[in-house]
Amino acid sequence: MIPAKDVAKLTSALPFWLSLMLIPLIWITAGLGGWWVLLVPVTTWYLFAGLDAALGLNLENADLDTTDEQLHWYSLITKVWPFAQFLTLFGLIWFATHTDHLSVGATIGLFFGMGVISGTIGINYSHELMHQKNKTERWMGDILLAMVLYSHFRSEHLLVHHRYVGTPRDPVTARYNEGFHRFFPRVLIGCFKSAFRAEKEMLERKNLPWTDLSNPFFRYWALQGGMLLFALIVGGWIGFLLFIWQAYIAIWQLELVNYVEHYGLTRKHLGEGKYEHVKPHHSWNAAHKASNWLLINLQRHSDHHYKPDRRFPLLQNYTDADAPQLPFGYPVMTIAAMIPPLWKKVMNPRVRKWRGMYYPEITNWHAYNKAKNPLPR
Predict the structure, then answer these.
(1) Are 291 and 331 in contact (CB under 8 A)?
(2) Contact (Cβ atoms closer than 8 angstroms) between residue 95 and residue 30
(3) pLDDT tens by residue, 194-221
(4) pLDDT, position 377
(5) What residues form the membrane-spanning segments (predicted)?
(6) Quick one: CA torsion of 203, 205, 209, 210, rounded to 10 degrees?
(7) Among 39, 6, 226, 225, which Cα is nearest to 114's?
(8) Burial class (CB in 10 A: 0-12, 13-18, 19+), 241
(9) What is the mean pLDDT of residues 340-363?
């Protein structure tokens, strides 16, 4: 265990600030143009995959008695990022529409890289912020999500995913043998519908219609509309389209991660719509050091679902005795997910091993594979 006094040191927090290097990097590539614009996705995917291989695993856990005050240098990065991303995104829109050295292909590639940043880092940081009780942090999370036109993710994640993960009611839980290219359109539609339904049902319990202004969807639509309008003002219709393009790439990055996090893992149906409680073994764990720096411990996902209110520095790592382990970090696993035969070759045997380890009494998995069990009550 890492003592709280050591966790609190700036030097301990600094590796998690590596994401900030992507801001000057994308500006440098924008200035260089050409094939250089691909340097951002190459860095986030391949450089950190290589660093994982070189640096190995981080199996240490921080002292859970570490206070919020001692986590200042960690939480600061998530508070700085929304401003950095906003200035970078709209600054690039202005730059790309007011320069003549970027070809059409280079411009598309540049905003592909921007989407990788706003998805890999931005949505991930919004995820950390939305889980906090502080209203300012939750608003920062909303602003980050509005920059990728995915504001409903907050409602879906907090009200649906955490409550129903591993059950047929959670569209984000990837089913066994379901390739990513089938998962992606299903989750895009399912997440919006389930998020809207969850907020509507909460209002109904207060005897209010969904059109009541307390419905956060009105805030989501206003923020997203403001972002689109600003992109139009800054960069015209080209800027508007570039904004939408980077938002799409960001969403694709998010859902690739969602696909990896719970693939094939289901909670046991206890009968009559009742399911067992969420446990660490219902999420894939990855202890790879460098990618956990980049993703602020998102890969310690088993603990996040077990204790959702923990800030990222305090998320605990689990051994293979308590949670299933990914063979590589997310940079490698998300690339594998784009190649379904490769993904299934790597992951299906691991899912079957997990089933035998935790649920040897279940002999027929058809209903779990097809999400045909009763919806949770």
Answers:
(1) yes
(2) yes
(3) 999 999 999 999 999 999 999 999 999 9
(4) 84
(5) 12-30, 36-59, 71-96, 102-125, 228-251, 326-343
(6) 30
(7) 39
(8) middle
(9) 97
